[in-house]
């Protein structure tokens, strides 16, 4: 148990080295697990969110088979893959095992989501228990970390980006233990944790590695529990083992960046990603630009995000938790509060480095300028992911305060911890009721039979297929997948146009120009067949169930009219009936395409 100290110059030992003896830990861990898993299983059964890659649910075995290959000949006429290798561990095996066990897709996804929350909360719980030995305080801090609003910006469609968030407390714990003895073993543990958390997004793991390494100067300079020489040797061991164990995906990223298309250059810029990254938002665990985004159909994260900017009660509660944590940390006087306060400060500074638009700081302007010429700097543009440091710092301050209160008055400490837990849970009430699923990214786990029929048709009739019309992301009338579902339902070669280009420069440019002229209604029918032949296409699949309003894409009847023109020289081989009929849009869009088309006709889904 910790003892308070006011000696700033030479802090005395403030706690027992390790958990206090006596008592049982498993009830607290069980409570953490219940809060992380159970609410997600109670609602929206049978519903999936468009998380990361649809092929994790449609065909995880095929995704795992193709993940090690940096060249994928099946997609877009052959393409250098972008971050596919990261699915080798841990996300790909998780969903493959779930498939082998016969778990429904929605249940497998809830278990994955719940595991992200639980591993993060358990890591914080274990870290705080190692520091202060007080279970009630560790539970308070663990829940405050695991149920942070920080997770809401990524959990519905980019959950893999939260793996570094899960890893942060474990990395700090491994660093602390390595400094206290057996450095090689704990350096290996550190490296394996990074391996499990960093393969799908290198920039995200960068921020948490920086955060975990802050414990080294704290231990050497403030805590004085290790000498400078020994501290450097621990850092070198950790760095060596971590670098060696990450080479498998670092090399893949290097190959993709060298020989693949410049993906970073066609995605969001520093100015876009930093537009919402204020220090105030970072303090409450928010600031990630995607969290605030929307399009002509409404907010992207409807049901998760709007309340944090529009509901006064939710806004007050979301600030109350961090402010309570700061107050508790100040009151505790534990020496570790210096480290956790440093995490809060560094996290806020890193996440908001480029915030401010035209009047941003000198450092922010330099960062934006460097991002225009350096791919490495541009890859760090989502600096808001450093907010994980802030969230853990606040959780640590809250846990320290509760631990100190429990020492003075167990009842007061328990009551204070309960209030902090209630504040953390209150911000999650609405997200819990939606199973952390935003409507914008939801769909039934059952894909329409017509799409499966189309996949089987292509499997029986070899040849590359072109999917039309192109769309930035796949949003269907029946749900949203982001990735085209047909790609995961067939083993045939596929090519299509989406927001991130694939394939070679010439092929992707030709496909983009072809799709653009088709959607603009200016295509010359006599060019369709030659272009298809140049792309190596045997089959053209036309989908009529896309949500055309969201991305202002061409109407399916206009696409079919162009392809059915006798001058195109194409033949309608198969329609998959009864299929999905395009319903009357409750909010019809009248634009130049509607005027040009002049009429709408239902069409079977999809047409080959």
Would you kindly provide a written description of the structure presented here, covering whatever features stand out?
The protein has 608 residues and is mostly helical. It has two domains: 47-440, no CATH class; 447-597, no CATH class. Helix content is 53%, strand content 6%. The strands form five sheets. A three-stranded parallel sheet has the order 10-7-11, covered by helices on one side. A two-stranded antiparallel ribbon has the order 1-6. Strand 8 and strand 9 form a beta hairpin. Helix 1 runs antiparallel to helix 5, helix 4 (91-100) packs across helix 5 (105-132) and helix 6 (135-146) packs antiparallel against helix 19. The protein is elongated. The model is unreliable at 1-13 and 579-584 (pLDDT under 50).
In short:
This protein is mostly helical and 608 residues long.
Count up the domains.
2
Name the average pLDDT.
90
Helix/strand structural class: mainly alpha
Instruction: Tell me the overall shape.
Output: elongated
The biggest sheet amounts to: 3 strands, parallel
Task: Give the strand order, joined by hyphens, for the main sheet.
Answer: 10-7-11
Alpha carbon gyration radius:
26 Å
Query: Percent helix among the residues?
Result: 40-55%
> Which stretches are poorly predicted, pLDDT < 50 over at least 5 residues?
1-13, 579-584
Query: How many angstroms does the end-to-end distance come to?
Result: 70 Å
**Percent of residues in beta strands?**
5-15%
Helices, by number, come to 27
Number of strands: 11
């Amino acid at each position: 148990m910790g003892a308070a100290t006011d000696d700033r110059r030479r802090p005395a030992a403030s706690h027992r080295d390790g958990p206090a003896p006596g008592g049982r830990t498993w009830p607290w861990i069980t409570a953490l697990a219940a809060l992380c898993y159970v609410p997600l299983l109670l609602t929206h059964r049978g519903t999936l969110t468009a998380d990361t890659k649809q092929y994790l649910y449609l065909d995880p075995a095929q995704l795992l088979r193709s993940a090690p290959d940096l060249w994928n000949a099946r997609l877009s006429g052959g393409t250098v893959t972008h971050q596919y290798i990261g699915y080798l561990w841990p996300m790909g095996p998780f969903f493959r095992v779930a498939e082998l066990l016969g778990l429904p897709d929605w249940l497998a996804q809830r278990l994955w989501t719940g595991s992200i929350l639980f591993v993060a909360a358990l890591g914080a719980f274990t870290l705080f228990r190692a520091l202060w030995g007080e279970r009630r305080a560790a539970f308070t801090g663990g829940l405050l970390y695991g149920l942070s609003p920080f997770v809401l910006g990524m959990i519905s469609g980019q959950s893999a980006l939260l793996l570094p968030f899960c890893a942060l407390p474990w990395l700090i714990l491994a660093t602390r233990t390595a400094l206290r003895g057996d450095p090689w073993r704990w350096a290996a543990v550190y490296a394996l944790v990074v391996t499990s958390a960093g393969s799908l997004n290198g920039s995200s793991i960068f921020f948490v590695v920086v955060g975990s390494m802050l414990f080294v100067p704290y231990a050497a300079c403030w805590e004085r529990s290790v000498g400078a020489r020994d501290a450097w040797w621990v850092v070198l061991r950790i760095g060596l083992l971590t670098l060696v164990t990450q080479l498998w995906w670092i090399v893949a990223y290097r190959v993709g960046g060298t020989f693949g298309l410049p993906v970073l250059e066609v995605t969001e810029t520093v100015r876009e990603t930093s537009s919402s990254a204020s220090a105030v938002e970072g303090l409450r665990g928010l600031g990630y630009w995607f969290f605030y985004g929307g399009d002509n159909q409404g907010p992207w994260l409807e049901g998760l995000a709007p309340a944090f900017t529009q509901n006064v009660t939710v806004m007050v509660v979301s600030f109350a938790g961090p402010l309570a944590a700061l107050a508790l940390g100040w009151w505790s006087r534990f020496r570790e509060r210096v480290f956790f306060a440093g995490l809060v400060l560094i996290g806020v500074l890193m996440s908001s480095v480029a915030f401010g638009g035209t009047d941003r700081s000198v450092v922010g302007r330099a960062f934006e300028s460097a991002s225009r010429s350096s791919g490495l700097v541009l890859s760090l543009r989502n600096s808001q992911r450093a907010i994980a440091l802030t969230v853990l710092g606040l959780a640590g301050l809250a846990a320290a305060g509760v631990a100190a209160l429990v020492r003075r008055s167990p009842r007061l400490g328990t009551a204070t911890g309960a209030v902090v837990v209630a504040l953390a849970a209150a911000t999650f009430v609405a997200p819990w009721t939606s199973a952390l699923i935003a409507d914008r990214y939801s769909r039934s786990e059952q894909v329409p039979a017509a799409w499966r029929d189309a996949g089987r048709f292509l499997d029986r009739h070899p040849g590359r297929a072109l999917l039309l019309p192109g769309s930035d992301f796949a949003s269907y009338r029946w749900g949203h997948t982001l990735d085209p579902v047909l790609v995961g339902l067939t083993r045939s070669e596929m090519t299509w146009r989406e927001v991130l280009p694939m394939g070679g420069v010439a092929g992707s440019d030709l496909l983009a120009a072809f799709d653009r002229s088709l959607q603009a209604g200016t295509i010359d029918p006599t060019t369709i067949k030659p272009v298809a032949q140049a792309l190596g296409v045997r089959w053209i699949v036309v989908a009529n169930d896309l949500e055309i309003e969201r991305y202002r894409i061409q109407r399916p009847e206009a696409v079919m009219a162009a392809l059915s023109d006798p001058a195109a020289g194409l033949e309608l081989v198969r329609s998959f009936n009864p299929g999905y009929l395009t319903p009357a849009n409750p909010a019809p869009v009248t634009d130049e395409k509607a005027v040009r088309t002049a009429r709408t006709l239902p069409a079977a889904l999809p047409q080959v």
